[in-house]
Each structure stands twice: as structure tokens, then as C-alpha cells.
Design goal:
This protein is α+β, with helices and mostly antiparallel strands. The strands form 5 sheets. The protein has an 8-stranded mixed beta sheet. Strands 9, 10, 11, 12, 13 and 14 form a 6-stranded mixed beta sheet that branches. Helix content is 32%, strand content 21%. It is built from 18 helices and 24 strands. It binds adenosine-5'-diphosphate and magnesium ion. Adenosine-5'-diphosphate binds next to helix 2 and helix 5.
């Protein structure tokens, strides 16, 4: 007897559910997409306990006819696609007909729906894929889908769920961003009966951004407007089927917002990409965004971006993954360059407004603010404290027509005395430098506004000629350079020097380390032990040689030369903590950068510390040797420069 069997539907659905339904937010995503496909103008999402206990989505869309409401739970049952040809030009968000049967197979689901064409509605109940009930019900037109006890019959999957807060954050992020994609619709989100988001229809994306994030964010972002480009396809081969001329022109439209370069995030979670209205993840577009900020942001820092790319359905394949979160572009490098140049162009055109310290005008309260404090907080922190001084970003050299400084703010006021607020000496949050390898983007031609030289890599040689004049507040080095006056943050500068030194020595496999006279015994918590076991070898290669020493304790025998014995324990704990939080599954390269960042931050000279002339000279000379002397491993600027030109302007000499 043969061994191969066709799987029963129930099993096939659960397998599909593994791909489509990963967590409560995936249910929300599929259902939001269904409601939008059903032409809903108001969508309400309710969740309990992070969506594990209950998720309910109510819409006022076209509902389902009675017969359809049963059919919808059959595998590959969809109203959105009927032939193979349709698959090449999908205009709806759904098309695979997998979501409803998949979700129904791993939860207790109730569907209540009525099409305006019928006088009574239908209620269907399915538990773990088994039909429990199907009855007539008096319902308003539209659809209510309630999903309870997600994964109740698949315990291993249930275990993968994170805390209620984390699951809720994923749901909130989804609803928020779908609300941004549809400013003309009402969206509501409630968690455990608490309102988290409530937005009413508005006329523009800008107003929706205001509703959701508040005025602060609008100040920190640049509106791309609508950028358009046309891809011209070559005419078909003379023997092939003829194609109408207009079909050979493929327009691409890009809208949305990107943050000003000063806003720096340490991961990609603030980048939202929509292609033809579908929220997706896409490496190509992520790369295009990074490329747009190349030289404007340190490697490893990411902007906030909310981008909507629209194109001919035939230009993009959405059927790449069952969860429909990935796409493949037919002309990928064209799309990449278009997105990169559009963003880059906007960044250059919009000079950040001159931000002399002025009393803040009272701000209107946003209509509904999500608990996005973390988000706005980061934006806040990322603002330069001395906005009228230029942060030392590489800048384009003066072009032949004398256009210099085109992409950077130019000091425009007459006020020179900067307001300096010393950061508190305590080190900030533990450093995280999960930078990908530095992007190397070749110079490109075209795409830039006339007269602006985009990729003129500046020479950082000027750093070599810096002459330290003295120290301000025992924290900042004041230096004279060929091109103006410089202020260097001594802690951050030293941090960068040490960071690169550790990475370089690690890469060469010869880290300078010191033998500790007495091994240092450190006690670890259970989770630290797990992390330690995972990264002990790498720690050893970075100078921290250690060995297990009894239960729960380790003995550290060596440390990198720059580290003081009193700092060893806190560096180690910091590495273990960040490794656990951020770097699970991260690459070895990221782990190495993180270790180097921790060592550098702790071992670097602090602020509020007097430095003698020799040390000032030494520090600037070493900084000049750095490969990336503009930002610390966490992306903070190292130096501010007040160019000669600005000084002359300030004194009305030019
Ligand atoms: P798909 O969206 O890929 O077609 P689903 O399994 O998500 O597959 O949904 C199956 C079908 O159920 C859809 O094609 C649609 O006809 C119907 N449907 C699902 N949700 C709704 C809704 N909220 N309003 C109206 N019809 C819906
Ligand atoms: Mg669907």
C-alpha cells in the first residue's frame, strides 16, 4: 500500500495557519485587509489581553451573502480572484482565500455578517476548524468577526506569544499604520475597553499624521509631496504580440513623510512601507531609504519613514509569501533608485528651519494620541541641542558654481552665544549598535536637483589640522580648524576612538588585554547565564577571558587594556543585557559591534573632566584617524562646527 496520503482539510488549514497567523496582530492584519477590501468606511478593532483572549473587528463594508459566509471558510475560497490572469494584476489586499479558514482552524471564531442585499444576516461559529453553528440573525449591514482563544488547540504556538503589552504593541502599530494609509476612513482601537486610537475621516495624509502622532512629529518630518516617475518599457519584439503605446509607460508615484536627518532611530521599526496600499516589509526599499540618508546619518541609525508607493499592479508581485507582507518588483533597481532619489531630493530641498532658541508657541493637542511617548521621546532626544550650530555631517564641497552647503542648514541669525546644557554625567541608556555593515553606495548621476552635488564626499582631513584652544565646562574641546571653529564632545569622541580600536583589533584577532591579578568572580542571574553561555567565546575574543566558577558564577581572568577593573562588571552586565534584549538572532558582526560599543562607552573619558594640553592634542589626533569620526556608536554627533563662512556672515563681513 502506498504511503502518501492527501492531508484532510483540517490539517491543511492548520499548516496554512502556521504561515498566515503568527500572532494576534496577524489576525488583525488579515481582517483589516478584508474590511478594506469590503469597502468599509469605518473599522473598529477591539482586543482583550493583547488579543490572546479576544479580537473583534467590526466594519460597515458590503458584508457577505448567506451562501458566501459559509463558503468563505473553505480553503482557497475568495471573491477577489477568478483566474490565473487576475493573479498578475491584483487590485485587492486579499486574494489567496486562506485567511479565514486558517484563523478558524486555530481559534474559536464567530462571524456575523449581512449584505445590504439581504434582509437578515448570518451568524457562523467555528471552533478549531469545526462548524458549531450557522444561523440567521438580525444584524446591521457589515461584518463583525470575533476571534477568541487564539491557538487554544495549538499549544506550541501559544507559547511563542509574548507579553500582552508586546502583542498589543504589534496590534496598535498595525491599526495606526492602516489608519495612516486611509485618512478618509474612521478607525478605532480599544484594548480591554480602553480607547487607544480614534480617528475620524480627514482630507489629507498630513492631517491624519497630525491626528495620530501630534504636531511635534509634523515638525520633525518632511512631506515628500507626490513624486512621480515614468518607466518606459522597450517596444516588444516585432514578432511578438503588439502592445499599445500607453502600456509601455509605467508610472510610479511616491508619497509620504520622512524624518529630518537629526531624527535617528536605532532600528527599522519606525519605517512603514506601503506598496499599492499594502503594508509590506521589503529589503530593497529599506536599502533605498538608507541610501537616501547615506552621509546624512551615521551607519546603524535609521529614520522615521511613512512611504506609499503606487504603481501598476503588473509591476509588483504580491504573491511571494502567504502573509502577503513581501513583494517583488519587476524592475527592482529602477524602483530602488527612484525611491532613493525622491527622498534624497526632498531632504536636500527642505532645509531644516532655522531653530534659534525661541519660546515654543502653544501647540494644539492632537485629536487622539496613541501611547507613542517612546516614539516622540526619541524624536525629542534626537534633536541637536545647539540647532544653530552645524553638526559635523560630511558636507558637499563647493561646486564649480560656488553652490556650497546646499543640503545643510546655514546659520542665519545674528545670535552667536549658544545655549549649552550639559548632559548629566551619568551614562545614558545602554549602548546598542546593531548596525548593519556600512552601506557603500556608489555615486549616482542624475536625480538630484540642478546645482546640487549630492555625493561629493567631503574630506575629513580637516580634522588633522585641528588645534585645540581649550576646554569648555571641562567637557567640550574648543578647537580652531582650517575651516572654522569646532566644538568636540570629549566623551563621545573618545568613545568613537575606542569603538573603532576594539573592532579593528578584534578583526585582526589580536586584542590587547590585561591579566587580572586576582580573577574577578561575578554572579549571574539565570537569564544572564543563558546569554553568557551563548556569547562566552566572543567575549573571550574581545579580551574578557572567563571560566565557569561554581554554580551561577564565573571568574573573569582578563580584560581589555583600556578597561579599569572597577568597570568590568558593569560592562559585562551591559553586554549580557543588550545581548538578551536586542541581539537574539543577530549576526556575529552585530554582537561584536555591540560589545565594542559597551567597552568604548564605559572606558571612554567622561565629561566634567579636565584634560591637559597633551591629552587634548592626543584626543584630536586619534579622532582624525578614525574611519567614521562624525558620530559615536550610538549615533550622537561628535563635533559641531561653526564654519568660517558662518562666522563672517554673523559679523556681516560677507
Ligand atoms: P481573501 O481575502 O484572500 O479573499 P479570506 O480568507 O481573507 O480570503 O476571505 C475569504 C472571503 O471572505 C473574501 O474573499 C471575501 O469575499 C469574504 N470576506 C472576508 N472578510 C470580509 C468582510 N469583512 N466583509 C465582507 N466580506 C468578507
Ligand atoms: Mg483576506
Amino acid at each position: 500500500m502506498g504511503r502518501i496520503r492527501v492531508l484532510p482539510d483540517a490539517v491543511a488549514n492548520q499548516i496554512a495557519a502556521g504561515e498566515v497567523v503568527e500572532r494576534p496582530a496577524s489576525v488583525v492584519k488579515e481582517m483589516l485587509e478584508n474590511s478594506l477590501d469590503a469597502g468599509a468606511s469605518a473599522i473598529r478593532v477591539e482586543a482583550e489581553s493583547g488579543g490572546r483572549r479576544m479580537i473583534r473587528i467590526t466594519d460597515d463594508g458590503h458584508g457577505m451573502l448567506r451562501d458566501d459566509s459559509m463558503l468563505a471558510f473553505e480553503r482557497h475560497a475568495t471573491s477577489k480572484l477568478s483566474s490565473l490572469k487576475d493573479l498578475q494584476s491584483i487590485a485587492t489586499l486579499g486574494f489567496r482565500g486562506e485567511a479565514l479558514p486558517s484563523i478558524a482552524s486555530v481559534s474559536r471564531l464567530t462571524l456575523e455578517t449581512r449584505s445590504p442585499e439581504e434582509t437578515t444576516g448570518t451568524r457562523v461559529e467555528i471552533h478549531g476548524g469545526k462548524m458549531i453553528k450557522c444561523e440567521e440573525a438580525a444584524l446591521a449591514a457589515g461584518t463583525i468577526l470575533t476571534v477568541r482563544d487564539l491557538f487554544f488547540n495549538v499549544p506550541p504556538r501559544k507559547k511563542f506569544l509574548r507579553s500582552d503589552q508586546t502583542e498589543l504593541a504589534h496590534i496598535a502599530s498595525l491599526v495606526t499604520h492602516y489608519s495612516l494609509a486611509h485618512p478618509d476612513k474612521t478607525f478605532e482601537l480599544y484594548h480591554d475597553y480602553r480607547e487607544l486610537l480614534q480617528v475620524t475621516p480627514v482630507a489629507s495624509l498630513r492631517e491624519r499624521v497630525f491626528q495620530v502622532f501630534g504636531a511635534q512629529v509634523l515638525d520633525d518630518v518632511i512631506d515628500l509631496g507626490t513624486r512621480e516617475v515614468e518607466l518606459k518599457l522597450p517596444p516588444p519584439h516585432p514578432h511578438a504580440e503588439p502592445v499599445a503605446a500607453e502600456d509601455l509607460v509605467r508610472p510610479f508615484l511616491l508619497r509620504g513623510f520622512v524624518s529630518r536627518p537629526q531624527v535617528q532611530k536605532y532600528n527599522r521599526s519606525s519605517i512603514y512601507l506601503f506598496v499599492n496600499g499594502r503594508l509590506i516589509k521589503d529589503r530593497l526599499l529599506l536599502h533605498a531609504i538608507s541610501a537616501a540618508y547615506y552621509n546624512l546619518m551615521p551607519p546603524g541609525a535609521f529614520p522615521f519613514a511613512l512611504l506609499f508607493l503606487d504603481c501598476d499592479a503588473e509591476e509588483v508581485d504580491v504573491n511571494v509569501h502567504p502573509s502577503k507582507t513581501e513583494v517583488r518588483f519587476r524592475h527592482s533597481s529602477f524602483v530602488h533608485d527612484f525611491v532613493r532619489d525622491a527622498i534624497r531630493g526632498s531632504l536636500i530641498e527642505s532645509r531644516p528651519a532655522s531653530a534659534l532658541p525661541m519660546p515654543e508657541p502653544p501647540r494644539a493637542q492632537p485629536a487622539a494620541a496613541l501611547p507613542y511617548s517612546e516614539f516622540t521621546q526619541t524624536l525629542e532626544n534626537a534633536r541637536l541641542e545647539l540647532p544653530e550650530w552645524r553638526s559635523v555631517l560630511p558636507e558637499p564641497a563647493a561646486g564649480p558654481d560656488g553652490v556650497a552647503d546646499a543640503d545643510l542648514p546655514v546659520f542665519s541669525g545674528g545670535r552667536i552665544e549658544p545655549r549649552i546644557e550639559l548632559p548629566s554625567p551619568a551614562p545614558a541608556a545602554p549602548p546598542v549598535d546593531v548596525a548593519p555593515s556600512r552601506l557603500k553606495v556608489p555615486n549616482h548621476h542624475g536625480g538630484a536637483p540642478a546645482g546640487v552635488q549630492l555625493d561629493g564626499m567631503p574630506s575629513l582631513d580637516v580634522l588633522k589640522d585641528l588645534r585645540p584652544i581649550g576646554q569648555l565646562h571641562e567637557s567640550f574641546i574648543i578647537a580652531a580648524g582650517r575651516d572654522g571653529l569646532w566644538i568636540v564632545d570629549q566623551h563621545v569622541a573618545h568613545e568613537r576612538i575606542l569603538f573603532e580600536q576594539v573592532l579593528k583589533q578584534r578583526a585582526a584577532g589580536r586584542l590587547e588585554k590585561q591579566q587580572l591579578l586576582i580573577p574577578m568572580v561575578v554572579e549571574l542571574t539565570a537569564s544572564q547565564q543563558i546569554e553568557y553561555a551563548r556569547i562566552a567565546d566572543e567575549l573571550g575574543a574581545n579580551g574578557f577571558e572567563s571560566e565557569p566558577f561554581g554554580n551561577r558564577t564565573i571568574a573573569i581572568k582578563t580584560a581589555p587594556v583600556d578597561v579599569k577593573p572597577s568597570q568590568i562588571e558593569s560592562i559585562l552586565f551591559e553586554i549580557l543585557e543588550v545581548a538578551e534584549r536586542e541581539l537574539r538572532g543577530a549576526s556575529l558582526d552585530e554582537l561584536r559591534r555591540n560589545i565594542a560599543a559597551s567597552i568604548a562607552c564605559q572606558a571612554a573619558i567622561k565629561i566634567n573632566m579636565r584634560l591637559d594640553q597633551t591629552r587634548l592634542d592626543w584626543l584630536l589626533a586619534r579622532l582624525a584617524e578614525c574611519e567614521y569620526p562624525t558620530n559615536c556608536p550610538h549615533g550622537r554627533p561628535i563635533a559641531l562646527r561653526y564654519s568660517t563662512r558662518e562666522i563672517l556672515k554673523g559679523f556681516h563681513r560677507i
